[in-house]
């Protein structure tokens, strides 16, 4: 395989190269302090430079631009306050503003301060007016309800008086009062005068309120309550709640004080009330007038507040983005070190090699636009430090790259499994999910996401939808491959179709009309593509498909594992590590193919020749009795000799993997640090290649025991893994069988069963159950299951053959990444 080399030129979009990460360089930029802000701003728009923090030993408060960051944080706080107020008012911020936003942060800071002060004042005045309005509403309710108490009490008292007068006769009865009215009014000082308190209490607390009053006064109060029909706004909390109007009659100052304390404890609002009906009517009239005035004032205040928030909303997004940009610029400037003359800022960072010209252009443009007399200096540094990993992906390849990165970010310039994952991942998924009916359903669902991707990309989606939308092209490939494998399996919701030709088999006579291969004869050429439809429903369907899918799983597994080992060769060649080629790649490829490569060859030979050889027997006795004759299990001449040679190679390759490498590494270490005092300087092209031979050892003491144990673990892991990984690929067969059988059960036991009743109602119910079972189990649960199993095969069985995944991502300073960040 030829190594792909990415071109250095090509404008903003050079040719994409996914096989190896972009060549990176460590650059140093010396910026005059007067043009520093504009320079970093232009680099943020470019988004191709990852700055290193040269002030890591300083706390955030000791850095040069701490005051500016504090100012930006204060502006961000004001913007968050505006956003909260707009959300409460139901006003949405405008994405496209008709007016131009202030680009000067000083002017913006003053403007935001004035707007905040005005909005806070409007809110405070509005709260006061709303509280006064709520109090007047409650006062009016008290006047109305309590007035009803007194009027009804007066009417009742007058009626009782008339009744008593009519009952009075000349002779005394047992009901005649002992004291006459004149006698009772003889000593006014002995009369008991009752006081009362009126107000509103929350309805949920009314029963507790009544009990507490009774207990505190020992029953020496009289309480009347009336339910308020509609919820009222509480003046204190500002929340709507259901309340009752109450009037408490009491005698004595001690009782009054207790009642007042209980009212405060229960949040009961008290209001003044006059017994005289004329004054009650006058008070109601005055309260109604004040309510009308307050309502007008409140409406005007709300309109003014709404207009102010709308004005803010028109420019909110621009202001917010500007503040985020400013804050990120000053954060980046704080990562730069101040020159001793305090006239320049020195910055270091990683950038792709192809971005050199673009960065230099940005620096020149910033120096010109800021009228700086001195331009910025750009130079490339040479370092042994491992650079970050950067792959240029697009909306199609990014999701596949994320699958790989979830396992571990590729080491700088190592072979990227993402290139092969684009094909192998959806293909292995489809092997387990193969049904072209289900594949079409997945395809239609994905096409909806792809057609509406511009609209969905601009919306805030929930976690599951966002994850599905992000992987839409992965699902698209999975659907296309599922249609392909479904056509090979000849299954459409488990139903076979004669799509490419008629079946190659026909009945010998009428007695073979049942679904069975007994009595079938071959009358045509072999079915041209996929499984002959006659196999479905036959007695030998399960043994035939089991054998086919199991052998196919082994072939696919051995092929992918060989690809992984071959990629380890390309890594060793690229990084010039010869010991890995001779003591790792060659023995690994020999060991794997001596056993399982040979098994794959036997499978293909058995298919070609139609032999009845028992491959289980061949492989088992290859180890147990390698010298025995094969008999009927012989597939080709000289097979016994070939097996002995392969067995010998497999046994030799194990110590080959284990022993030579640690000793060679020890010799290399001794040659470097004893025989040579100096090393040749590396060329510019090689200066950033990770020195893999030196990474773990360098100038430290060489720990032979540690290296040997590590190599022993690696050897044991590969030898055992060769067996377990091959067995692991049998999940392709197991899940494919499970999917096919589940699909067949839903079709036969739900849809066909409902059809057989000849009842339209049962048929409709059967169709609904079939649709829900297909979508819920086969299109959701089975899709997720096959996805996870394909993920495991790539992460464990494929990538562990060559992929180290111990790098770190290239995270450039870019304004494009600010939109998704939360403050």
TrEMBL record:
- A Pfam family in this protein? V_ATPase_I
- Topological category with respect to the lipid bilayer: Multi-pass membrane protein
Entry keywords, A to Z: Coiled coil, Hydrogen ion transport, Ion transport, Membrane, Transmembrane, Transmembrane helix, Transport
Any one GO biological process: vacuolar acidification
- Residues passing through the membrane, by range: 427-451, 472-489, 554-577, 589-609, 641-659, 760-781
GO molecular function terms here?
Answer: ATPase binding; proton-transporting ATPase activity, rotational mechanism
* Coiled coil segments of this chain: 105-132
Q: Which domain of life is it from?
A: Eukaryota
A GO cellular component annotated for this chain's UniProt record is: vacuolar proton-transporting V-type ATPase complex
Q: Does the keyword Transmembrane helix apply?
A: yes
InterPro entries, A to Z: V-ATPase_116kDa_su, V-type_ATPase_116kDa_su_euka
Intracellular or extracellular location(s): Membrane
- Family named by the database record: Belongs to the V-ATPase 116 kDa subunit family.
Q: What does this protein do?
A: Essential component of the vacuolar proton pump (V-ATPase), a multimeric enzyme that catalyzes the translocation of protons across the membranes. Required for assembly and activity of the V-ATPase.
| Name by which UniProt lists this protein | V-type proton ATPase subunit a
Q: Which organism is it from?
A: Citrus sinensis (Sweet orange)
